[in-house]
Amino acid sequence: MNMTKKLLSGALSAALLVGVLSGCSKEPAADDVAYKATGIARDTVIATVNGQKIPAEDYLFWLQQSITNVKYYGYLTSEDWSTEQIEDQTATDYVKSDALSAVTYYAVIAQKAKENGITLTDEDKAAAEQELADMESSLAEQNITLQMMLDAQCMSRDGFLAMNEKYYLSQNLHEAFYEGGPLDPGTDAVSAFADENGLYRVKHILLSTKDADGNDLPEADQQAILEEANALVAELRAADDLETAFDEAMNERSDDGRNEDGTLAAPEYVASSGQMVEEFETASLALQPGEMSEPVKSPFGYHIILRLPSDCEELRSYYANDQINQWTEEAEVKTEEIYDTINPQDFSTKMDEIIAAHQATIDAANASASPAPSDDGSADDAAASPSPSPAA
Q1: Stated pTM of the model
Q2: Which backbone phi and psi does 333 adopt, to 5 degrees?
């Protein structure tokens, strides 16, 4: 993607979270893009989540993200968003609700982290600062200022830092659900969650019955592969340590997908109902944790499946997501009167004007930096030729 042409119109790739700003000023700051776009100062409280005040900047960042995402999928093309429908809502209501849901979610993350003594480490804070510095340096190379980028997202520098810190805080909250963490639910709860949601954990050895072009091998060859699979099962059942022996055989023999270095791309799976082919899923669910199947025929070949205990970091992460979603649904969200005055279509139009003005500045800077053509139509030789590498 050409950053100088496209950067200002897309969502920040690293921007997953926003921070809670504090303080209030009588006069909007010169860089208050929220005020420029809506007439509402960025520190104005527009809602509360479980009593926590939500400033306009937090909400408008997510409103801009929602509008960008919805436009990507072909919506918001009508002249009046209040008459356009998205999922049984007007487009206006949809993007406002979507943004409010997002800001609620991350407010709840901050609240639950605080309740459970989960904080940012010094490394987290340093990483957030470094990301901002790296972004500023990268943008400068393209005649884009950090303020331009922040304006395009309707946020301030402090808001961006808080946003990145919330990203790390979210990670830390999820890790609190891991074994030994302050929110550790216990193995039984994780296993019950997996069962209730049709999730199961397995590893398998695939002996493929396909040729290099994906066609079925001759019947005689398939029979030989079945005999190999039966022999391998017998060998594994005789092993002193089934899982260790299984891993060795899997890494050496399995025809499942592999990385460039030859290692298995997916040495184990946390699968959901309907994700795998029927034969594989049926055989997997018939096993108890620690049990191994006989060879199971599927369209891909013969599988030897080892059922694993459900409790693992991946499933605990799913459990954490489910719990956080539940907390979010239970959150008490109240909007202020000023929230009702926010018109997403007017906001989007104003943001487009702000972005276009910055883009014009960028284009002018790039044009002035380009070498002037010589009389023969070519660029100046010195400017057109690459400079020697400092390392040469």
Answers
A1: 0.80
A2: -110, 125
